[in-house]
């Protein structure tokens, strides 16, 4: 009877989904204002100062992402021999007061992942155990980068000779330490550069030239990640994004969250739509009725709220 009633229920216009797409597009072009300059043949460089620092990952080398994100500045501060108290505080406060809303509504790489997923809309799922294990990978990646960069900062203030030697050992990581784990770096720097080189030289030297084994491996790894996003939504966000890992510590205690109305929600057996549409594969029906953040994984995309046939999911602000 419940299923029949739901089938007869008129479909609603996806206002939230449309609004989110519009906001994502606006942020994408604001951040990548070079695209605006190309389209309108105008100078939008004044946006550089306005968008110099944003929470999510930027690509340090790309003219399309002038400035850097909070995590990049945090790593840079560490490499200079200082603890990034300010940037960690900002990331923590953003997570506490807004959760991962930037990830869901403003991040350019998140927007591209959503576009890729729209090609199929299948929302494939890993098993619960595999999903939990994979979500730990981004934390290991974040820790690995901190472990690599910390000696650089220590040597910077204590031993110049050791600093130079360690900087040579790190190579490109010294100046662009987040590059290997940044989808933004791949999308806005690496991939366009490789394509341009292939077109100009009419060969694959940019991919397979001597001494670029790791670059080649990373290139094809990210191609695989992008393909996965067609079927597994937000795969990079869920399993690899270092900013997602950093902000999730405070986002799990976010004052902005979603909650389920117990009098409206029939549960997983009778419905379970919210879990089926969640791109972050959060076990929403295992979360507390009073409010959930998916242990800091929820990006507040509101897919569950909009597609819940019982109107059981609502906003909540407060502890």
UniProtKB/TrEMBL annotation:
One of its GO terms (molecular function) is metal ion binding. Pfam families: Fer4, Fer4_5. Keywords: 4Fe-4S, Electron transport, Iron, Iron-sulfur, Membrane, Metal-binding, Transmembrane, Transmembrane helix, Transport. It comes from Promethearchaeum syntrophicum. This is 4Fe-4S binding protein. InterPro entries: 4Fe4S_Fe-S-bd, 4Fe4S_Fe_S_CS, Electron_Trans/Redox. Residues 256-288, 289-318 form the 4Fe-4S ferredoxin-type domain. The keyword Nucleotidyltransferase does not apply. It comes from the Archaea. The chain crosses the membrane at residues 21-40, 83-116, 137-157, 211-232. The keyword Hydrolase does not apply. GO terms for cellular component: plasma membrane.
